[in-house]
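Bumping my old thread because nobody answered last time. Still need a sequence for this structure:
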């Protein structure tokens, strides 16, 4: 959502929209006043001076003067100069009036419509990140479906088959064969239960609720096959969605380090500064990581941007690889 307008003087003066409005006020009070004065004065003076021969003689002596009022016309010999001045005013009206008005309009649009342009860009950005979030959500659902179909479902099918075989063996081959099949069915059921727990943890890790983001990140570091050090400074809890976003980003980064980087060490930093929750994962691997459509890095970007956050990847050939991002987490 767009930031609220500041209510105090100093933050208001630092606000870009306030500064644009102050610049507009200054320019409109000077240049705008001049353009407006020209738009009224020039055509009026042109008409007055061009029609001067028609009425000057009816004015009391000593009062018949041109629009500028620098001299008084007392004889017909002074009338052509007034007409020439009227022609000059007409030229100014035609040649200078429209360009000055268009310039003033451009200045006003640039200064006053900037906020609307910012809002339009913001809407476009939110539309894009919403689409990315929906794509990430669909990809997550497909991953969960594959995990259930290829793992727990197959284990449960095997458990059902073994239980059926044990039931038949109990009547035909005796208790020993049935006991062996029941043991295999129990092993398959335990494996299925473990895989179901893994799927549930991948949806929303219980460690986040139990130990908070700091404990969850330390758990990821402890489970990393690459030696991992951590710096976690999160003095207070953030919303669950924010913590989950950062948790999955760090988890994905550590997974990529273990699979692709060839690193010997990795360092994780998670820190809350004001209303921003930041993370940084740096390894000493071979580098060359790239964001590709459908990759875990692209999914990480989608998660971060869907939370109105930012994400960055730096991975030159030869390393190091740095993945970092930040998410707003409220005040």
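Sorry it took so long. Here it is:
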């Amino acid at each position: 959502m767009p930031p609220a307008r500041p209510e105090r003087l100093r933050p208001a003066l630092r606000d870009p929209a306030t500064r644009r409005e102050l610049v507009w006020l200054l320019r409109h009070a000077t240049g705008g006043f001049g353009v407006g004065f020209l738009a009224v004065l020039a055509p009026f003076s042109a008409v007055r001076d061009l029609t001067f021969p028609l009425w000057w003689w009816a004015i009391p002596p000593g009062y018949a003067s041109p629009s500028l009022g620098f001299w008084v016309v007392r004889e017909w010999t002074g009338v052509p100069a007034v007409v020439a001045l009227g022609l000059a005013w007409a030229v100014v009206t035609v040649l200078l009036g429209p360009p000055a008005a268009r310039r003033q309009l451009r200045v006003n649009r640039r200064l006053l419509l900037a906020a609307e342009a910012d809002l339009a860009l913001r809407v476009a950005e939110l539309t894009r990140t919403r689409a990315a979030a929906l794509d990430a959500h669909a990809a997550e659902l497909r991953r969960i479906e594959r995990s259930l179909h290829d793992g727990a479902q197959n284990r449960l099918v095997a458990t059902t088959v073994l239980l059926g075989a044990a039931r038949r063996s109990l009547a035909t081959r005796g208790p020993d064969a049935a006991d062996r099949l029941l043991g295999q069915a129990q092993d398959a059921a335990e494996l299925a239960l473990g895989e179901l727990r893994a799927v549930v943890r991948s949806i929303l890790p219980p460690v986040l609720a139990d130990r908070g983001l700091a404990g969850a990140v330390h758990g990821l570091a402890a489970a990393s096959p690459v030696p991992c050090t951590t710096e976690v400074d999160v003095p207070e809890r953030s919303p669950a969605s924010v913590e989950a976003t950062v948790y999955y980003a760090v988890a994905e980064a550590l997974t990529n380090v273990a699979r692709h980087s060839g690193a010997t060490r990795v360092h994780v930093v998670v820190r809350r500064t004001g209303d921003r929750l930041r993370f940084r994962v740096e390894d000493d691997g071979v580098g060359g990581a790239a964001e590709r459509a459908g990759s875990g890095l692209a999914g990480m970007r989608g998660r971060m941007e869907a939370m109105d956050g930012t994400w960055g990847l730096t991975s030159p050939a030869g390393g190091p690889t740095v993945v970092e991002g930040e998410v707003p987490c409220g005040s």
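Strands lie at 228-233, 266-273, 276-283, 310-314, 321-328. Let me know if any region looks off to you.
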